[in-house]
Automatic annotation (TrEMBL):
NCBIfam families from the UniProt entry: galE (TIGR01179)
Name of this chain's protein: UDP-glucose 4-epimerase
Swiss-Prot/TrEMBL cofactor(s): NAD(+)
Catalytic activity: UDP-alpha-D-glucose = UDP-alpha-D-galactose
Alphabetically ordered keywords of this record: Carbohydrate metabolism, Galactose metabolism, Isomerase, NAD
EC annotation from Swiss-Prot or TrEMBL: 5.1.3.2
Domain NAD-dependent epimerase/dehydratase span(s) in chain numbering: 4-264
GO molecular function per UniProt: UDP-glucose 4-epimerase activity
Transmembrane segments: none
Subunit details: Homodimer.
InterPro entries found in the cross-reference section: Epimerase_deHydtase (IPR001509), NAD(P)-bd_dom_sf (IPR036291), UDP_G4E (IPR005886)
GO cellular component, one term: cytosol
GO biological process, alphabetically ordered: galactose metabolic process
């Protein structure tokens, strides 16, 4: 049975991916330092899958510790690398924190495993900025990043592409996610924002359950059908399955040794459409107000996912109603079973 290392595997996307790896028959070892996750998620994964993932607490920026880990775990056949800081606002305030963590961890992993590794890298649609054309394809130009966080994703992709160019044994797939939302159908795992949520959907669910006040819709004067900003929202379970598809493609050793795929639904939804879908799918009424545009927000973005559909053999299956209802079920679970 093949063993996959999942860094940041106790986090939001990581925990869902571990469940899907178990469902597909892989063994899993998680590395996490819980800087942006909760140890209880390991128990929640076991409740869903019936399997407890092997776990090592480790700071991936510690070069010696990562090399020692790699020497002790020579049976790892693939790596899915989630572990990174990801709060855009914080990255603007503390750029060095982001550059240190997001680069050192990646470089340490590649060097520790002697570059003979199959790696799925967690990238982001932030590399596109405000695209010139929609839907945005993988060949679209990478724009100057709006934040140090976004810049770490761009530079990490460059590090990987340039290393693959001179390291034939290294095989990498970078997945450029759009906006992951929702939770597992069991409602046992989901997004656990620290402090006030920076993303729309967890703010919606926290507002609906009474943890937060009214929702602010930042701008209703964009050049979109209802004036609110548009994003490509993808269910986190679909996103998790994309990582399993990427590992399988790397194992097959087809295609180039560095590839990029957009991971989204290929369809944009506006902020007001998301609010309406939440109300429709849960029966909960939301309290929201229109505010001014936020600095740095882009008007609209959604991906062309035909490359993922045809080459990766993956397709998003869950719609916006499943995204909203599962996110709400998770919020209610947290209310009744606080972490």
């Amino acid at each position: 049975m093949k063993k996959i290392l999942v860094t940041g595997g106790a986090g939001y996307i990581g925990s869902h991916t571990v469940v899907e790896l178990f469902n597909t028959g892989y063994e899993v070892i998680i590395v996490d330092d819980f800087s942006n996750s909760d140890p209880k998620m390991l128990d929640q994964i076991e409740k869903i899958s019936g399997k407890k993932p092997e776990f090592v607490k480790l700071d991936l920026c510690d070069e010696q510790a990562v090399h020692a880990f790699a020497n002790q775990h020579k049976n790892i056949s693939g790596i899915i690398h989630f572990a990174a800081f990801k709060a855009v606002g914080e990255s603007v305030q503390q750029p060095l924190k982001y550059y240190r963590n997001n680069f050192y961890s990646l470089i340490n992993i590649i060097t520790a495993f002697n570059s003979k590794v199959k790696l799925v890298f967690s990238s982001s649609c932030t590399v596109y900025g405000q695209p010139d054309k929609l839907p945005v394809t993988e060949s679209a130009p990478v724009k100057k990043a709006e934040s140090p966080y976004g810049n770490t994703k761009q530079i990490a992709e460059e590090i990987l592409e340039e290393t693959c160019a001179v390291t034939p044994d290294l095989r990498v797939i970078a997945l450029r996610y759009f906006n992951p939302v929702g939770a597992h159908a069991s409602a046992l795992i989901g997004e656990l924002p620290i402090g006030v949520p920076q993303n729309l959907v967890p703010f919606i669910t926290q507002s609906a359950i009474g943890k937060r006040g009214a929702i602010t819709v930042y701008g209703d004067d964009y050049n979109t059908p209802d004036g609110s900003a548009i994003r490509d929202y993808i269910h986190v379970v679909d996103l998790a399955k994309a990582h399993v598809a990427a590992i399988k493609r790397l194992e097959a050793e087809t295609g180039d040794n560095y590839e990029i795929f957009n991971i989204g639904t290929g369809k944009g939804s506006s902020v007001l459409e998301i609010i309406n879908a939440f109300e429709q799918s849960t029966g909960e009424k939301l309290n929201y107000a229109i505010g001014a545009r936020r600095e740095g927000d882009i008007e609209q973005t959604y991906g062309d996912v035909s490359h993922s559909n045809t080459v990766l053999g993956w397709k998003a299956e869950l719609g916006i109603n499943e995204m909203m209802s599962s996110a709400w079920n998770w919020e209610k679970y947290l209310r009744d079973n606080p972490f």
